[in-house]
Design a protein that fits this description.
- A hairpin with a 2-residue loop joins strand 17 (about 455-460) and strand 18 (about 460).
- The protein has a domain at about 380-400 and about 410-640: 3-Layer(aba) Sandwich (Rossmann fold), CATH 3.40.50.
- It contains 25 helices and 25 strands.
């Protein structure tokens, strides 16, 4: 259902917004906006009651400019974007106004909106494998996007346009690739195809919903470059939805920060990063690791969790988590007000005048945590005992041919003579692109069997000498793993008590000792012990990851293998998990083997780094030395792709790409 009516509060926000213009890196917007959104409100009826997913969003989109919508999960970002293209569920109740070049879209049927989707508005979804049909070739899916809106196009014109689109998004050998299927493409290439489909009909607006989440840092940089090329080719306005503030810094012109379904700050990219005026925005920016700076202080997470949209607290929704909250903040929700009218800077906060007048910064508002990183010992690294050692480890897989009879065509080396050492209390990071051999290396360690070649020693014991299940059980007590997705690694049918008790029962602990240990574990990871009877689905993503960490710590291990433990988490939740891991390491003298594609996190948390490429470790050393003075060209390319959460730095640096053993500027590989 739709209805074009504005509440009094929403109308005030609209009037304030219309008096202001953003003044981002491309200057003030010129001409009429492509799309105008006014007082957009979206609610759903659920079993938990009415959910107000969007509460009065107002913004404009201009051709050639990128608006980033940021905020934690559940803030209303994706629902706002889906409202623009008419892809909400049938039970959504929408009010307000969404005008595309002066034409109202709210109130149109799904059939009427289908004429706009793909031609005027297109969308790039987060998971390209789900967005593409596995049974149709890439060429068929590109052709479908063209023919559904241009039925009179002849076969040659469709073919030529499909080839041109694949060339535009940087896919080599486009003629041959048209006959390939989605499963034959890598994740980054599939996302390029999705972008090609999105720009096929030169839309006015491109909505990109978390287009780089969980992608390698180099692939992420390539996708963002392709998105810029697509915008340049089509002249479209781009709406970029993301929680990665490094991505925002290098891609956006304007930023809209949302919380509990409502915009709470809006500014040009430079203004927002230089002079944020909402404590929530400051918290988001402060929680991000800085990949271009040495890690000499703790990250500062925003305490607590976002409110349920079915039970938004009275007053400012952020007040329960805000370090500046006053009694008025808990009683009256602030309106969007102009901080700097000439800059188009809006903020919803009762205390913004004080923040502006006193020039308060993040460190003034969030000063409560110890700024220094915890250290458990002053003993030099080389004097600590070695807990994990790999020497010349090799792992190969057979390569099978196609057809009914799959004969082996050779072998593929996934891990090629990998060697490294981890000392007690040390964090070693294993980095590289997908397919470099990181996860296979972890698997070789976890299997506790003799490798094809080389040796693996855990706590001084060679795994090749372990012959019995009892011996493996003793080693597994000291070696535990934390996976990327806690929801997949925690049994949804078991309450948390049973989840935590399972590894202890495998080690034959008594019931009394298990009960005591579970209480200790819940306290250790910062979750109320009274919640042990709840199921994993009743916890937030960050809480589930804390429970996964508690499970890994149950047997008091010496080594933790962490496989992308913070991928896809909100930045504020990431900061809390990173701080927890640092505290646990200092308190329990743990050693970490940390696999991640987020190099800003790696620089913050690791002591040493191993860079893997095609199964080989091409460079290793102290973290600061690797990040400050990388020697290998592949390492240099990897580090140049890391997004830096500073828009001025992002706009002035040149990204390099590793090609045929040497570095080349990324700009030279893009279509101009």
């Amino acid at each position: 259902m739709t209805e074009n009516q504005n509440s009094t509060t929403g109308m005030d926000d609209v009037l304030r917004y219309e008096l202001l213009e953003g003044n981002g890196p491309k200057g003030a917007p010129k001409g009429e906006p492509v799309m105008s959104v006014r007082d957009l409100r979206v609610s759903f009826n659920t079993e938990a009651g009415r959910v107000d997913a969007v509460r009065g969003a107002s913004f404009d989109l201009w051709g050639g400019r990128t608006l980033a919508i940021v905020g934690e999960s559940g803030s209303g970002k994706s629902v706002t974007a889906l409202s623009l293209i008419g892809l909400l569920d049938d039970n959504a109740y929408v009010t307000g106004s969404v005008k595309l070049r002066g034409e109202e879209l709210l109130g149109k049927t799904d059939e009427e909106m289908s004429k706009y989707r793909g031609t005027k508005i297109s969308m790039i979804f987060q998971d390209p494998l789900s967005a593409l049909t596995p049974m149709f070739s890439i060429g068929d899916q590109l052709a479908e996007a063209l023919l559904i809106h241009n039925p009179k196009m002849d076969k040659k014109a469709v073919h030529d346009r499909c080839v041109e689109l694949l060339e535009t998004v940087g896919i080599t050998n486009p003629e041959d690739r048209l006959d390939a299927y989605p499963h034959e493409f890598s994740g980054g290439m599939r996302q390029r195809v999705v972008i090609a489909i999105a720009i096929a009909n030169n839309p006015d607006i491109i909505i990109a919903d978390e287009p780089t989440t969980a992608l390698d840092v180099t692939i992420q940089a390539q996708i963002l470059d392709v998105l810029k090329v697509a915008q340049k080719e089509t002249g479209a306005a781009v709406v970029l939805i993301t929680h990665d503030l490094g991505v925002v810094a290098g891609s956006a012109d304007d930023v809209l920060v949302m919380y509990a379904g409502r915009p709470i700050e809006r500014a040009s990219i430079d203004t927002l990063y230089e002079r944020p005026s909402q404590p929530y925005t400051m918290g988001l920016l402060g929680a991000v690791p800085k990949p271009h700076m040495a890690a000499d202080h703790r990250l500062v997470p925003i305490k607590g969790n976002p409110p349920s949209l079915a039970a938004i607290p009275s007053g400012c929704p952020f007040s329960p988590r805000c370090p500046m909250a006053q009694p008025r903040c808990h009683e009256v929700e602030p309106d969007l007000e102009a901080v700097e009218p000439e800059e188009g800077h809006l903020v919803a906060c009762h205390r913004w005048p004080e923040i502006k007048e006193k020039h308060l910064t993040f460190s003034d508002i969030y000063p409560d945590l110890d700024p220094k990183l915890p250290k458990w010992a002053d003993v030099p690294r080389d004097q600590r005992p070695v807990v994990l050692e790999l020497k010349d480890v090799v792992k190969t897989f057979p390569v099978q041919g196609k057809g009914l009879i799959r004969r082996n065509k050779g072998t593929m080396t996934a891990v090629d003579h990998a060697s490294f050492v981890i000392h007690e209390g040390e964090t070693l990071a294993l980095v590289g692109e997908s397919g470099s051999g990181k996860s296979t290396t972890l698997t070789q360690i976890m299997e506790l069997v003799k490798p094809e070649q080389g040796t693996i020693k855990i706590m001084g014991k060679d795994v090749a000498d372990i012959k019995s299940n009892k011996g493996r059980r003793e080693i597994r007590r000291d070696l535990q793993v934390i996976f990327q997705d806690p929801m997949s690694s925690l049994d949804p049918r078991m309450p948390i008590y049973d989840v935590l008790a399972e590894p202890l029962q495998a080690q034959h602990w008594s019931a009394d000792k298990i009960n005591k240990r579970i209480g200790e574990l819940m306290y250790l990871v910062g979750i109320n012990p009274d919640y042990v009877d709840r199921f994993p689905s009743q916890f937030s993503g960050g809480q589930r990851q804390r429970i996964a960490i508690a499970r890994a710590l149950a047997t008091a291990p010496k080594i933790l293998l962490l496989d992308e433990p913070i991928a896809s988490l909100d930045v504020s939740i990431q900061a809390g998990i990173i701080n927890l891991l640092e505290d646990l390491q200092a308190e329990l003298k743990l050693s970490y083997l940390f696999v991640a594609h987020d190099l800003s996190v790696i620089r913050h948390i690791s002591d040493t780094v191993c860079v893997m490429h095609l199964g080989k470790i091409v460079e290793q050393g102290d973290t600061e030395e690797i990040f400050s003075h990388p020697k290998d060209p592949y390492t240099q390319a990897l580090l140049s792709a890391v997004p830096i959460p500073d828009p001025k730095i992002e706009r002035t640096r040149e990204r390099m790409v590793y090609r045929d053993g040497k570095l080349v500027p990324a700009s030279s590989l893009l279509k101009h």
